[in-house]
Design goal:
The chain is an alpha/beta fold and about 250 residues long. It has helices at about 10-30, 45-50, 80-90, 110-120, 160-170, 185-190, 205-215, and strands spanning about 1-5, 35-40, 60-65, 70, 100, 125-130, 155, 180-185, 195-200, 230-235.
Length: about 250
């Protein structure tokens, strides 16, 4: 794991996008195609805004997966991650990706996990753009996270801290409106990515960042597992890095 502290949230997003774009260009040059994972949430606004402006990426040769989606969530809902990524990535990129494998959690979630698992097994991931939740989660793997399962996608229960974060970010009017289940990419599947770009701005993430970077590797802070990935970089701004000792 590497850690970079940038002067501002926008500079954080710019550097994360630049480094991720370089990994995409490298895969395209070597194989003529690239496979990526995109995250959602307020922490990814700046990174995605810069990523779609990165030059010399043939998005028509890029296959995209994303990390999670709420159970029962229609794509028309303001909190839908499919809606988020369509509006902030697909509609903003110079051209659409070759394929975008959206998580559809409106029907049988277990069947959807199986469908997506087969697809991602055929598309080894070159770069995963992810974040860290206020409770230390990666994707929707809330603590204590399952570090052992090899299943690519899981149906998970969302803890209250996670649901309160979604409420606090303004995606839902009340806590009761936040779903209690979701489909999430598993921890082990995320770790299979050749490179991980982890964008974590804002003061509200300080304790999670401290646990992820300087704490022990433990399911109680799911993001701490990123310490074991040789090519993971966490991009911070001064507020999110404020509790780090180094």
């Amino acid at each position: 794991m590497n850690v970079e502290v940038l002067p501002s949230k926008d500079e954080l997003g710019k550097k994360a996008a630049r480094d991720g774009a370089e990994a995409i260009r490298k895969a395209l040059a070597e194989r003529g195609e690239a496979n990526v994972i995109l995250a959602t949430g307020a922490s990814q606004f700046e990174m995605l805004g810069h990523l779609v402006k990165e030059p010399d990426i043939d998005w028509g040769k890029v296959t995209v997966f994303h990390l999670d989606e709420y159970a029962g969530m229609p794509i028309t809902h303001p909190a839908s991650f499919r809606k988020y990524l369509k509006e902030r990535f697909v509609d903003q990129a110079p051209e659409p990706p070759r394929e975008f494998h959206y998580i559809n959690a409106e029907g049988d979630c277990f069947a959807e996990c199986e469908r997506l698992g087969k697809l991602i097994a055929e598309h080894p991931i070159d770069v995963a753009f992810i974040g860290i939740g206020e409770n230390g989660h990666v994707a929707f793997n809330d603590p204590p996270a399952d570090f052992s399962t090899e299943k690519p996608y899981l149906v998970v229960e969302l803890d209250e801290a996670c649901r309160r974060q979604q409420l606090g970010e303004g995606w839902f009017p009340t806590l009761d409106d936040v779903p209690k289940q979701a489909i999430s990419m598993s921890v082990r599947q995320i770790l299979k990515s050749k490179q991980i770009i982890c964008s974590v701005p804002d003061e509200r993430k300080t304790k999670a960042v401290q646990g992820a970077v300087e704490g022990p590797v433990t399911p109680d802070c799911p993001a701490s597992i990123l310490q074991e990935h040789e090519k993971c970089t966490i991009y911070l701004d001064p507020p999110s890095a404020s509790l780090l000792k180094k």
